[in-house]
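Exercise: predict the fold of this chain.
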Amino acid sequence: AANAYRQTQLGAPGFGFLQAMDHQSFIDAQYWGVHAEVNLETPIGDITFIPAYRETDSYSDFYGPAFNNAVFDEHYEQYSAELRLAGSAGMVDYIVGGFYFNEDVAGNNEFNQEFVLPIQSFVGGTESWAGFGQLTFNVTDQFRITGGLRYTEDQKFIDGNITNFITFCGPNSPPPVTPPASFGVGCQLDGALPRYPSFLQPQDALDWLIANGWVDAGSTLNQLPPFYPVLSQVAGDPAGTVRGRILRSVSAPTDSGTFDKLTWRVGVEYDVTPDNLLYATVETGYRAGGFQLAEAYTNYDPETITAYTLGSKNRFLNDRLQVNLEAFWWDYRDQQINFFTVSPDGVLVSVAQNVGASRIRGFDADVIAQPFRGTTLNAKVQYLDTQYQGLIFRTAPPHNNFNCPFTVNGTLNDGVTPVMEFDCSGNPALFSPKWSINFGAEQVVPLGGDFEAVLSARTAYQTQQWGNFNYLDFQSIPGYWRSDAQIEVRNEEMGWSIAGFVNNIEDHRQVAFPQASPIGFAVVRRNAPRTYGIRLSADF
């Protein structure tokens, strides 16, 4: 299917974000893998060995507002192995082991924005290994102290090429502009500027421009300077009229490096009674940095976290009531965030960058009760207080749609376009409602023999939350309720069931993901509407 699509669709003009889409997006992917688990009992403890291999070939096409379409042609190959020993010696329980991971990635992608055509090809990889150990000291039958260490080393590399074809409206004077500014100066006319089809090779894109009369027949990829005059095809324009320019921008990011970190964990547990546990932990975490296809922003640093937890797990009334409580405080450092910025030569790039710190704190209360035979009630309440403490974005017009204070810090390579730094510190984390409330109920009704009916319902409420880092008004997601219900008839002895369900009973299509596109579109994806159906299942 992917090969047929390449031959029949790539290079076929006519699908653009200013025109109706004329094909369906799709994913054509093959995933396969193998894994095993080997367990061996020895006098010093249980040895566990877990090897795994996975491979993916993925070809996909997607589109949306502000995009013509994007094509991904990527291959992933990875294998991993974990070996650990778990045992006890006197008052000490121990776990010690190692982990190895290797991944290679190759990709050929394009992100067609109709007047901008970035084409990427790259190879990259990660080789990671870690050694870890944890000791639990059973000080008494009720009191335990746990300590753990993990050392991780990640070696990464990337080697790629990005060719951007960027269409400007206008000859040389006044200075040419790109969409959307170009739409108001005559370049919205049919035949004024080429609207790129999708290509995965730069030479194919140039061949199309030549074949369709947009640039001179003698143009080559090595042409200097890298601006191609765009010959007008607007009815009434004199032959040879130049309506614009095409900039061919090339970057070849290549980088590699090693990241490593020693992380630790300390915890205590105390059994107040056989049914009541108190616990507290302090632990650190690490996420490796990496490399990306953005020449001016090739690398980014690791992020780290320190997490504090205090909690209690309890059973009451002969296990008919469970109450779990937990308070937590997380401190992130050098948090990695993806956003659109611009390179010094003015090319729009999507990058991962370290943007500072964030604080997440709150508590959970989780209750499960069985007041009657066959009746289960549950409720969960979570409170979140989140704040970014160093959220800085560097960008330039026309991609400066952030609702945060800014300062001007230099210009791009053109010496005119200002570089703007937006400080969004103090804002809450994304998709982090201050309050989340969940209620659920299930009733099992015997029907005779091995048959029973199960009636279940659940509802949840979340307060207002933010859905994107621009913090624009439309990216604020108002608070909402969502409820689901189901009636199921099952025979556990025979291993089958039939259920009727309805999800999103309120039929409220709240915002699931809001996005401010780089060229000014406000894009909102909503959740599914009220959905109902029948579900059949069987064991065999």
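Check your answer against the key: Residues 1-17 have pLDDT under 50 and may be disordered.
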